[in-house]
Design brief:
Metallo-beta-lactamase, Chain A; seven-stranded mixed beta sheet
Length: about 400
């Protein structure tokens, strides 16, 4: 069992830090084929933490011009009638509602999955510090109604939110989480019998839906010490009629093709396209890489692409609107149907009408660099290990 370096320190851990896996949970982690040398292993190696010059990172992240470019200049247009729209069943049986960042409500043939719900004001262990919301949540969590399953991709603060989990712990929902993450939830009041803790390629059936944990290229940790004892995952949610994919956080890796061949094709993919940087090139995808992941998952430009993990929190040096603009450009060049809902705007991926308007432009800041050039819009993602700027010239 892993112990704190100072006796009694464990009892002083802030609640938001969660809990370390112990007992049979830790023994199961040690038996995982993806756990070796004391940590969970990525499918492809990663560099964690800012790469390159610390001075360059400080200037880029904290420079005045760059800071101003990372927030909207007006009020983000949150959808005004979310609850009324959700009260009507989806005609197609499948509906997605992006609540901001990586939080998505997926309604699949009468069942409801809430992916990575973050209703807190800050993605931080502290209520007084840390990245703050750039727009309000579209609807109060209590007004959302019953949810059959809550799916968590990993334990970082912008995906696993203590106040949100505590609110949901009082409901009847089931929580599907990667290995080790259940320790946090149990500390926060979720009963063990409502946890489904899965390794990659394991699945659980909840309310008639199959939830499968699939690989991702990322890392974990909530406290001061990062021991890699909780797994990270992407997820597949499927009924007999519909299938969706949620990437969680991930760098690009060739395993998306395998996921698509095993569990696809998908009616929609929800893929991370924000909070990327050359300072951490292996753990988050750029818009180009996100579109490439969709193409790998689908075996071509099929289905609908919903960009997630952007617009809600200021987590990276890029301009606030850059992920949306670049995804819009790259998607058009690659022939991918990119849904562009405002936060809280429900849409049906298989319907004839989709939200396609770049809504963010009315509140976009003045950027410090040109938009993605048209000739670069089809540029493929770098292969794992390639340095940024050394990408191949072939189109997506």
């Amino acid at each position: 069992m892993t112990r704190s370096p100072i006796p009694g320190l464990r009892s002083l851990r802030p609640d938001a830090f969660g809990a370390e896996p112990t007992g049979e949970r830790l023994a199961r982690i040690h038996r995982s084929p993806h756990f070796a040398d004391g940590t969970f292993q990525n499918p492809v190696g990663v560099r964690i933490g800012p790469q390159g010059s610390k001075l360059a990172f400080t200037r880029t992240f904290f420079g005045k011009e760059q800071r101003l470019s990372r927030v909207p200049v007006g009020t983000v247009p949150v959808h005004a009638t979310t609850l009324a729209d959700l009260a009507r069943p989806p005609a197609s049986g499948l509906r997605l509602t992006w609540m901001g960042h990586a939080s998505v409500l997926a309604e699949i043939d009468g069942r409801r999955i809430l992916f990575d719900p973050v209703w807190g004001e800050r993605c931080s262990p502290f209520a007084f510090a840390g990245p703050k919301r750039l727009h309000p949540v579209p609807v109060p969590l209590a007004a959302l109604g019953p949810v059959d399953a809550v799916v968590i991709s990993h334990d970082h603060y912008d995906h696993l939110d203590l106040p949100t989990i505590r609110a949901l712990a009082d409901t009847d929902t089931v929580f599907a989480v990667p290995l080790g993450v259940g320790a946090h939830l149990e500390r926060w009041g979720v009963p063990a019998n409502r946890l489904r803790e899965l390794d990659w390629h394991e699945r659980s059936t909840v309310a008639g839906l199959t939830l499968t944990a699939t690989p991702a290229r990322h890392f974990c940790g909530r406290g001061v010490r990062n021991q890699q004892h909780t797994l990270w995952a992407s997820w597949v949610g499927a009924s007999e009629e519909h299938r969706v994919f949620h990437s969680g956080d991930t760098g690009y890796f060739p395993g998306f093709t395998d996921i698509g061949e095993r569990y696809g094709p998908f009616d929609a993919t929800m893929v991370q396209i924000g909070a990327y940087s050359d300072f951490w090139p292996d753990i988050h995808m750029t818009p180009q890489e996100g579109i490439r992941a969709h193409l790998d998952l689908q075996g071509g430009p099929h289905g609908v692409f919903l960009p997630i993990h952007w617009a809600t929190f200021n987590l990276a040096p890029h301009p606030w609107d850059e992920p949306g603009e670049d995804t819009f450009a790259v998607g058009r060049r690659a022939g991918v149907t990119v849904a562009l809902p405002r936060p809280g705007e429900p849409f049906e991926p298989t319907a004839d009408t989709l939200p396609l308007t770049p809504w963010w432009r009315d509140v976009a800041p003045e950027t410090v660099r040109p938009r993605l050039a048209p000739e670069d819009a089809g540029r493929p993602a770098a292969e794992p290990g390639e340095e940024s700027g050394q990408r191949k010239a072939a189109p997506v």
